[in-house]
Amino acid sequence: MKDDQTPRTRSPLGGLNLNFLAPVAGDEAAVSMPVQPAAAGEGEPVETRVVIVGSGPAGLTAAIYTARANLEPIVIGGIVGGGQLMITSEVENYPGFPNGVQGPELMGLFRSQAERFGARIVDADVDRVDLGSRPFRLWAAAVEYRAQAVIVATGAEALWLGLDSETRLRGRGVSACATCDGFFFREKEIGVVGGGDSALEEALFLTRFASKVHLIHRRDGFRGSKIMQDRAASHPKIQLHLNRTIEEVLGEEHVDGVRLGKTDEPGEEVLEIDGLFIAIGHRPNVAVFRDWLGTDAKGYLRADGATTASNIEGVFVAGDVDDSRYRQAVTAAGEGCRAAIDVERWLESQEVHTAQKLETGAATAL
Ligand code: NAP
What we know:
Elements: E1 46-53, H1 57-68, E2 74-76, E3 90-91, E4 101-102, H2 103-116, E5 120-122, E6 126-130, E7 136-140, E8 143-152, E9 156-158, H3 164-168, E10 174-175, H4 178-181, E11 189-193, H5 197-206, E12 212-216, H6 226-234, E13 238-241, E14 244-250, E15 257-262, E16 268-271, E17 275-278, E18 282-284, E19 315-317, H7 329-365
Helix pairs in contact: 1-2, 1-7, 5-6
């Protein structure tokens, strides 16, 4: 999320109403306990058994499980917490919500549930880590956290096309967040780039506001699910532009069009639109962990396969940061659960090991 260079003209969450993130009034069990560095003494490190980095479905599920295992987790959740679902509109495939649920609302529920069991959530970004020895050390907002075990669940973030004109017009009609910015394009014509589920979903969502949505994809076949493809293709407000690439975003102060390249025939064409939504996939948020943890060819963190253990004993990975294949909220939540169970068992084995060493030491002394 730190790499997202979208100008923040409104709140960091693009104007989303996050009141639901507050603890539910009257819920006796709900405990919102922001970690106060002063609690450990001014400037002193905050110590705990488990630190979870990230507050998307993986991080908060790990928080629910580790909190219920009395491991007193601290979640360092990011300044803009909640992960990708905070910029997702309707989620129709999360089990338990037969009528669908808004992404931010779902994350609010995850957070309340984690806090209910005592997880402490810090709304700050981790900017440095030292995983060279235990306790592991992590720094966020000038506070040092020390933990016996760490779960990295930092997720992934939206990719951009990389055009100068796209960067120049970000926040002026170019956006990667339909939920945040769709409202501003009421009765306008807009474009959506991409051919995966994100692009199809954003295009469908944007039909609520726009007079017309141009879905622009560089190939002639979509990568997204069949049901979403059918919905987009049959929607009266959506026009498909297949075999087209964005060569330039046009406009001085605001987007007023795009210059499209053709991949199926020579030539270019100009499409007049007032906004452009980029929905071309994601990049894992590995920055502060890159020097410590193993990554795969795509740059995603690598778990050892059978469990969520990383290449450093005591550090576990979960969610989209190690998953370039499934990338679903429900799979991320499942991984958060696995990581929590792995941490619990690993800590238990460490404690048994330490107890055995102490016993052996005492016997030798006798
Ligand atoms: P994705 O599946 O990786 O699709 C990215 C799309 O962007 C591809 O069609 C790709 O084109 C295109 N693309 C990539 N780089 C491009 C570039 N530089 N210029 C133009 N086009 C470019 O990513 P996603 O759509 O974000 O989905 C990620 C995962 O999340 C998937 O597993 C998806 O099913 C899931 N998801 C699910 C839902 C849902 O079920 N509600 C919603 C969103 C996402 P090519 O096809 O040519 O490679």
